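Bug #2210: token dump truncated for NADH-ubiquinone oxidoreductase subunit B14.7?
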Amino acid sequence: MPLFAVLGGIFTATEGLAANFRQEDDYLNSMLAGGVAGFLAGARRRSLPVMIGCAFTMSMAMGAYKYFGSLTDPFAGRTKEELLKERREYLRLE
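Reproduced locally. Full output below:
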């Protein structure tokens, strides 16, 4: 199985577990998941400095993407109630 697919699965699972455990969906979950995925990506080199460097890099990249992603998100600034109302109106079958 390609490394990219495995790391994507690990990232997604870790992010979901962190969000479920913390009961929050924010950039810290992405940072944690990026750190785990980066650490495992660096493990292929069997070098602790590379593993730590990859973990730090992936953690910062994924955290920044999630944190600043709301600036380009078309749903930014809307409450959950507004989003649910819009979804219900969109999915209404007539």
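Output looks complete on our side. The radius of gyration is 17 Å. Marking as cannot-reproduce; reopen if the truncation happens again.
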